Model the fold of this input.
Amino acid sequence: QVQLVESGGGLAQPGGSLRLSCAASGRTFGAVPVGWFRQAPGKEREFVSAISWSGGATYYADSVKGRFVISRDNAKNTVYLQMNSLKPADTAVYYCAARSRAYAGTSVQPREYAYWGQGTQVTVSS
Done:
């Protein structure tokens, strides 16, 4: 079992930065891939970024590539999402999610992730 808690959301100006954290409990967290997803009002949940269990492979949606950076510190059971050059279109609730099977591959599909945090609001506005 893995429990996830996101933090770091808030209000940022266009062009600004925020760093989201996803803190996990559970002994297997360091062995599972983790993804970040977001959901804006009236829209479906969409993939943002994912990182392999080792941190050696990372993936990004085209809309955030070159602006967001995902990383993880397995010693701290934490995954980060550094968000730079923020745009109003990045406004959404951001969720981190973990797969259940150790050493599984990453995925861009929300249905492949068994554990979810409660979400953190990111608002980009001047």
The chain has a mean pLDDT of 95. The longest strand covers residues 18-25. The chain has no helices and eleven strands.
